[in-house]
Amino acid sequence: xxxxxxxxxxxxxxxxxxxxxxxxxxxxxxxxxxxxxxxxxxxxxxxxxxxxxxxxxxxxxxxxxxxxxxxxxxxxxxxxxxxxxxxxxxxxxxxxxxxxxxxxxxxxxxxxxxxxxxxxxxxxxxxxxxxxxxxxxxxxxxxxxxxxxxxxxxxxxxxxxxxxxxxxxxxxxxxxxxxxxxxxxxxxxxxxxxxxxxxxxxxxxxxxxxxxxxxxxxxxxxxxxxxxxxxxxxxxxxxxxxxxxxxxxxxxxxxxxxxxxxxxxxxxxxxxxxxxxxxxxxxxxxxxxxxxxxxxxxxxxxxxxxxxxxxxxxxxxxxxxxxxxxxxxxxxx
Length: 333
Description:
The protein has 333 residues and is an alpha+beta fold. It has helices at residues 7-15, 58-71, 93-109, 163-172, 174-177, 183-190, 201-210, 223-235, 250-259, 281-290, 328-332, and strands at residues 24-26, 35-38, 43-51, 76-87, 113-122, 129-138, 154-158, 213-217, 238-241, 273-276, 295-302, 307-311, 316-318. It has a seven-stranded mixed β-sheet with strand order 8-10-7-11-9-12-13. A six-stranded mixed β-sheet has the order 1-2-3-6-4-5. The longest helix is centred in the first third of the chain and has 17 residues, at 93-109.
């Protein structure tokens, strides 16, 4: 299916990755958003991510989704490399200028230097594709990884889901939802890229200042459900989730219902999973909400085998890991 490789295949590939360098603190791993390398004075944090679903504002998307993963480690994003692949026969100078302007202006707003990359017109493409690599840095005592979470820690979620899916559908498939949404709602959906926005850098920075953060994770492809499974695998613990506590913005819910999409399994950049000890939960939530960022406590880390469980009033059931992102069904239809 379209989308990420299955976790089984990906795990096999990761296990064969050659890493014979003691300076590599963290290499590839399921649920590990970034690689971490020891420079002798600080850690450098690396992340690569493409933009394949969206075409509108892809330059801004590319920067922000890479920054999001850097933010989960507590690092400051510093340097960006851009690979831009353009469609044969449809590329104009205006298109190249527009995309690079989006990248440059977004990086400038975040004080990130664009230090290189590659640009070409590529055979067989019908739309532009961007792949970016973001590099950040963090002090030794500030690095955050999922291994820091412990049983009893609380799981918080900012903003709600699925923000990125709503933005993509609002911008790329407005014709499909125009029968279900009024003009104001159509504009809101398209503007989800900015409000509530797909960046979580501010979310992460506020949380770290307000209390002890033991892990963070960025829900992307496969949505909240995939992100929770990745978090469980990365920390080696079981997760107990109350789905009734998960925030779904009105416009997002309306779109998902109209298109018969599961909002918990659709691409969800813009939300941040924050794991914290129970004593700092209220202070972190309060700090985020005082800055206008919605935050809800949606679950807890439990000792036990890897897995994600949904708690209801009557029973406890295992959350099924999505085989592919819900939004891919729109591209396939």
